[in-house]
Amino acid sequence: MSAGALRTAGRVHARSGGAVLRLSEAESLTAAPSAPERMIINMGPQHPSTHGVLRLLLELDGETVTRCKPIIGYLHTGMEKTGETLTYLQGPTNVTRMDYSSPLFCELAFSMATETLLGLELPPRATWIRMLMCELNRISSHLLFQATNGMDLGAVSMMLYGWREREEVLRLLEKITGLRMNHNYIRPGGVAADLPDGWRDDTLRLLEGVGDRLDEYDALLTGQPIWRERLQGVGVVSAAECLALGVTGPILRSTGYSWDLRRHMPYLAYDRLDFDVVCGSYGDCFDRYAIRLNEIRESIRLVRQILDQMPAGDYRVGDRKVTPPPRGRIDESMEALIHHFKIFTEGFKVPAGEVYAAVESPRGELGCYMVSDGGPKPFRMHIRAPSFVNLQALPYMLEGRMVADAVAIISSVDPIMGEVDR
Amino acid sequence: MSTPPPDDALRPPGDALRPPGDALRPPGDALRPPGDALRPPGDALRPPGDAPLGAAYGGLAELPHGVATRRGAGSPGDALRPPEDAPLGAAYGGLAELPHNFATGRLEELVKWSRARSCWPAAFGLACCAIEMMATGGSHYDIARYGMEVFRASPRQADLMIVAGRVSQKMAPVLRQIYDQMMAPKWVISMGVCASSGGMFNNYAIVQGVDQVVPVDVYAPGCPPGPETLLHAILTLHGLIRSGELTRRREASPARGAGIVVDQRDGQTATRMVVSRKRGRFGRL
Amino acid sequence: MTAVDAPAPQGLSRLGVAVSEDPGGGTVLHPERERLPEVVEALREAGYTQCIDLCGVDYLGADDRGRLPDAVAPQRFEVAVTLISHSGRERVRLRVQVPAADPSVPTLFDTFPGTENLEREVFDMFGIRFDGHPDMTRILMPEDWEGHPLRKDYAVGVVPVRFKAAGDQR
Fold first, then answer.
1. For residue range C91-122, what is the model confidence (pLDDT) as tens digits?
2. pTM recorded for the entire structure
3. Separation in Å, CA of A7 to nearest CA in chain C
4. Which residue in A266, B2, B9, B56 is deepest, having the highest Cβ count within 10 Å?
5. Helix H segments across B67-224?
6. Considering only alpha carbons, which residue of chain A is nearest residue B153?
7. What is the complex's ipTM, to 2 decimals?
8. Does a structural domain hold residue A132?
């Protein structure tokens, strides 16, 4: 990464427009393209392969994309504003709906930021339960990617297989958290509930099933000539571009740049686990597909280690100012009743300050910038959404490719629009 | 309606009594009366009772008036009268042996039946609910059982819009445009609390209920509703189409949908409360 | 947040930027807004190779501003930029004070093109302009939207909801 000249060249490219079409939405209706043989077409926001409500303005020369502009905001939910009206205990309910394919990571980032402000030390079991849930969630999120990626590229059977396995993971998540999605399980101070009876056997059974199925995916897709033809060499980005554009996660790793927060800036207890950071070498769609497939394998490996090392103890902190008392205590103790009432009506107060906490979500660095003014609600809650930043790489990946490749490239970025627009 | 109605729909009644060879055409083909939501039922759909029609398509058991078959050749006119000796429902045994076979029923019933049985949804996924909608299309819940696995990318080919997720202020005009592009008759399911009422996002960015933008026929509760709840909503919608209730309600108030609220069926606690704002007219099936 | 053991990088001490520490132990720099691009460029040369985050904060009505060094005069708006050093395994945050009378900041686009979307979002949500940005337009809200939603004087926009039990009204 010492190629300073390359970096400078990339920045000049970005400034001059380069791959990025800088047109407002209103201008795009009337603007003349930059050359007579070019035309501007609109793709989305209601389009089968844009993974939600992403809209692209494509400038085409024949069937070749010359410039592109992603237009977002069609799913803007005002979550950061709503987050300022919810207490810290209600907050995870809000942020979990951002990245709906990996909701636990948003909850985790939010909770970690709150706990840093509070100066809380978590009991070990809470930490390990969080890791277990996040890795399970990473499996389900990457399975969703495999399903939709296959569907976008015409491998409809892959879509059915991906959903089949994802259903198995969701069943386990539902057993543990009570919900299939939007779990609201990781909360400031720990997790919402302890693991249920039989979770270990269920998890083991799940891992065996999914592990075998991954080999089937390999057989179905990885070596298949059509699959490779559609993905290899398509949507190439360089590590320098990724760094300049702030891109993280599997897209950055696909360029061969090894950067994974779990390994390089460990949080929770990832420094006590043994796993590999999966990296590509070409930075193309195929690498991104392969990275996500193999990250499922790494997550399975991680979950197996977590199963072996899961400590006993409490699943949330004992601080009664933060943690609601057990239901049984409320009937016996006036103090417990008051704590319960205060926590659920007013919320707990968090010392003033501002903090940034980040986790490695399936899409990259997911951070939460939290500002407290000493009250029971966040003064400002900002989520650094990986998809939002990663989308900036889209014009650079699309530049010079065919329109048909656009589908493969959008899919390989794996944007979750709820997280992009928040 | 931007396309002219096909000639078939406007044929005089006598034309519908077609020779047996024609009977193998799929019923949806000849009977699709475009734009009928906008006109009184008696107009496009002929008076029931006097309009038998040959149809040898699948699902005959669903037709209300039974099935008549006749062995051997006969004149077209003969074929349409159920002979006394032909047992009802005989079409199930050895259709291949028959030179012709058909069902009798009211045209209106047939239209409703075919509409309910080929209800293609528009792929209109917005947020979290879209993931559950796709899960419903996956192998475990398998929406193909109801002939609905064809999520159409083009609104022109879709009958049903499942609004799956929160509708932002920026998306609302797009949503309306897509609804307008769909061919009548068209139905809307509001999937999840965000689409139904804004849900937990009562703020500047989210339209507080998609029923402010398009008429909604079935509201499915949940955040997100599980596939079971969505299937329940879809089956409820099918039932309403089959019974004609949906058309009746839509004709009574064109700006509104049927406004049916279904229960949640995916294990979460279903609430008995629904939001009622200025529209104020919700029904429970 | 990883604690930074070493003091601010060598280049920065020459720049003379106020330094503080956040509750998680992270380093926070407080450059004046005119010098933001220069400081960020120096940090990039010092190994902070990626701009991870850029967001705005509106401190209108805040009870407690947290820890601001004495040398920094608090203003209504603030832009917080988070950079990450992959080799040093650490993050650094820059908090730039932006007065309400002139809500503008020099863009970081020339150093990190990846701030394009983030700066547009801050413009959309707070109305803070980034001078020199190639496409300073709204990104999340419709283009003709009025107001900047995340400002504290912009209401959440709650619509009162009347709840009632569903009856057989039809």
1. 899 999 999 999 999 999 888 988 989 999 99
2. 0.83
3. 9
4. B56
5. 76-79, 107-117, 128-137, 172-181, 192-197
6. A48
7. 0.87
8. yes
